[in-house]
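[audit] Reproducing an earlier prediction to check determinism. Same input, same settings, fresh worker. If the C-alpha cells differ from the archived copy the diff job will pick it up downstream; this log only records the rerun itself.
[audit] input (488 residues):
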Amino acid sequence: MVLCGFSKVVLNGCINKTEERFSFHDDIEARLIYLENGGVKVLFIALDFSYITRDSSRRFRRLLGRKVSLDPANIITHCLQAHAGPKEPAVSLIIPHLVERCVPAVLKAIDNAKECELSFVTVDVGKKFSMNRTKSINKEIGALTFWDGYHMEEDKPEARHMVLACIKSWLENPGSMIFSTPMQASSEDFITGDVKKIVENVEEFQEQIYYDGPVDPLAQLLVFREINGDIMGSLLRFSAHLDLALHSVEGYSAGIARSIRKALENKIGGIAAYVCGPAGNLRFLNREFSWKEIERIGESLVEAVVCKFNKSGSKFHLLERFDFITTQVTLPLHKDLQMSGEEAKIKEEELCRRIKKADKPDIADLKRTGDLASRYSWIDLMLNTWVCPTEDDLWRMEFPVDLIGIRLNNHIILGLPDEAYMQTTRWLREETIGENLIVLTGVNGYCSYLATKEDFKEGGYGPMCSIITPDGENILKQGAFELVQKLM
C-alpha cells in the first residue's frame, strides 16, 4: 500500500538569525511531501530558497534524518530558484535552526500519510508565461543573456537597446558585461560615437532584436486525494527563474511560488507545492516589476492548468506504484577552478589592461574579453559561496552530484541539480516517456550552470558562470536517462 502525506512550515524565525535581510514581504516556507511503500520512505522538501550548496543540503538531510528516523539518502531538498529568498552563505549558518523548525512538519506529514488517489494533467501554455533569456546575436558576438529590462512588443520581448548597451559598455570599459537596463531605456540612449559606426555596419542591429527562442511550455500538475475524495495536496511544476520579486518588493519573498500555491489551494484545496524545472536559460515573462504583476502571472498560470484539470473530469486513479531511486554522476570541473579567487582577479585585470591597449579591437574581441573577464570575476564566488567544491573535488577535478527518480503510477519525477537548461528537459522527454516525465532542478544542492556544448561555443553568461566543462551536460543527461530507464 502506498501512503502519502503533506505538510508545510513557515521558516521566518530561523531565517531571521542570518541577518542577511531585515524584513519579510511574505512568508518563506517549506512544503513537504512524504511517500511510503513498505520499507521505502521518502521525504521531499521544497524550500523557498534561491539555492543551497551540495554540502549544506547533505548536512541538513543528515541532521534531519537523525531527528525523524529517515535515511538521509531518501530525503530530497529542492530549492525554487526564488531569487528574493535565502541563499548561501547565510543558509549554511542556520542549518541546525532549519532542522529544528522542520522536524514537527516532517512528523506531521508522516502522521498525515494515507492511502490516496492521483490525478495528473499537463498543459502546453506556449510562450504565454516564460521566455528564453539567451539569444545568439551573430557570429561575431555569439550569445548574450539579459536578466531583465526587456521591451514588450506584441507579446514578444525585445532587447535591441540592451544589445547596444553591451556594445557601448565594451567600448568604454573593455572587460565589462551588461545583463540588464532599465525598462524605460531606448536604443537611442546608446547609439553614440563609435557605437553608431558599428551599428551602421551590422545588419542585425538595423531592426528589433526579439528574444523569442524556445522555452519549456509544459505546466504539469499532480493532485493527490484521499480515498474518500478529500484533496490532500498538489504539486505544480513549471520552468522559469523566480527572479521577479527581487526587483519588485523589499525583503524576503517566495515571489511567484507564493502566488501559485495560494491560487492552487483556493481552486483545488489541500496543501500546494510549487517546483521549478530546468530554467538555466528561462525566465518568467513580465510587463512590469510589481507584486500585482507577480500575482497576475501566478494566478493566470494556475487558471490555465486548473481549467484543463476540470475539463479532463479530474480523473483520479489509486496510487498503486511508488518506486524511488537515487544515484550520483560525476561531472568534470573546469580547469579554471585550479586557480584561487585572488589569482583569477589578477588574470581579469591583466585581460582588461591588454584589451584597452589593443589597437582598435573588433567587436568579437571585445565580446570574448567581456566573457572571460566576467568568468574570472566569478571564480571566487564559485569557489567560496555559490558551489563550494571541496579540496577533494578540486584535487580530482570532479564534482559528484545527486540524481533522484520517483515513480508514481505512470509518471516519473526526475530531480537534477541546478542549473540545467531547457534543452536537457526536452531531450530527456523525447528519449523516455514524454509528458509523463516531470523534470526538476535545484535538487540536493547547487552545481552552477550546466550549459550544452552548443551553448559553450556561443559564450555568454551561462557557460562563463559554470564550474563544469562543456562535456558535463551530456554526462548529466546520460546519467539521468539511465535512471529513468530503470524506473520505466
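[audit] rerun output stored. Observation attached for the diff report: The chain has three domains: 2-125+214-328+400-487, 147-205, 334-388.
[audit] end
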